[in-house]
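Example S7 (structure tokens).
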């Protein structure tokens, strides 16, 4: 006998959460409301636009709640009225209050982009790539008051390619997490889910990214620079300076070949080859963006900018 469908309230805001709400909408369960962060100014024009989850929910006819504060009485009353059996969280962006955690009768579960207990926190995919990890994954866990510390209900592993960027990996994890989440919701509905406590002693924390993460030193090893470049996508991006101009570094490759040149020195700057000496090894810059300009491959960048062997990239203007 199939267990009754659950009434689910969904907490999520950005594109990462869209596959999960889509999977729930396609399941036998009912999404009774979507809780998203308030609309914010976005892009260069700072125009107010709705988030990806809000757009999907409205299109599906799901009521949307956007509280500025989760303690707001009007929001809590609206949440109580939907009579959710379960809350599902995927990249909502705020820490949930005790009142919210206590409301659904089956509690809340979260789609987290790491293999817990490693990389708890706001930027698990980015921090894993910056650290040079070769594997990551998805964990479905119970939400508790402590950050990302709840019991685990399911995990799925995914290798990280040597040149994959954080947005590449995060996009795929969103798809994996959506499928895994529905499986867990089904298990919760029929009472077969198993919960495994995390080993708190093995936990690491993935701090939120800031603009300060963009800066690096060219005397770092080439692999470390490469990992930072691919880990800071789609924001805030690694940055460097040449001839007093700021450049955003979008894609790169590495070579173990050594050079006697000082770190930051341009070794090659012809055709599509823009190669820079690092503290050890070399970094090949594949895609760059001059400030205020569009992203472009190295070949196109070199055609429009004077960069020659012997020039130096620096970390300051």
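Recovered sequence:
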């Amino acid at each position: 006998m199939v267990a009754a469908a659950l009434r689910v309230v969904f907490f999520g805001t950005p594109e990462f959460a869209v596959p999960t709400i889509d999977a729930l909408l396609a399941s036998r369960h009912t999404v009774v409301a979507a809780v998203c962060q308030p609309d914010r100014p976005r892009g260069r024009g700072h125009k107010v636009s709705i988030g990806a989850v809000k757009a999907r929910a409205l299109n599906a006819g799901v009521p949307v709640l956007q509280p500025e504060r989760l303690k707001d009485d009007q929001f809590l009353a609206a949440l109580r009225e939907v009579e959710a059996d379960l809350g599902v969280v995927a990249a909502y962006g705020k820490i949930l209050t005790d009142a919210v955690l206590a409301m659904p009768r089956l509690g809340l579960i979260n789609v987290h982009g790491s293999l817990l207990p490693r990389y708890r926190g706001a930027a698990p995919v980015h921090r894993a790539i910056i650290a040079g990890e070769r594997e990551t994954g998805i964990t479905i866990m119970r939400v508790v008051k402590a950050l990302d510390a709840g019991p685990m209900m399911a995990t799925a592993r995914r290798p990280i390619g040597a040149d994959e960027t954080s947005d590449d990996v995060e996009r795929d994890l969103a798809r994996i997490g959506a499928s895994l989440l529905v499986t867990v919701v089904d298990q919760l509905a029929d009472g077969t889910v198993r919960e495994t406590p995390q080993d708190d002693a093995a936990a690491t924390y993935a701090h939120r990214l800031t603009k300060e993460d963009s800066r690096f030193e060219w005397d770092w090893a080439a692999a470390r620079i490469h990992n930072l470049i691919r880990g800071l996508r789609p924001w805030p991006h690694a940055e460097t300076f040449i001839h007093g101009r700021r450049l955003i570094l979008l894609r790169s490759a590495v070579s173990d070949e050594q050079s006697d040149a000082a770190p930051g020195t341009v070794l090659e700057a012809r055709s599509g080859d823009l190669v820079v000496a690092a503290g050890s090894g070399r970094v090949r810059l594949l895609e760059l963006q001059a400030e205020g300009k569009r992203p472009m491959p190295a070949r196109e960048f070199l055609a429009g900018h004077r960069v020659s062997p012997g020039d130096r990239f620096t970390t300051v203007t």
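Notes on this example. The mean pLDDT is 95.
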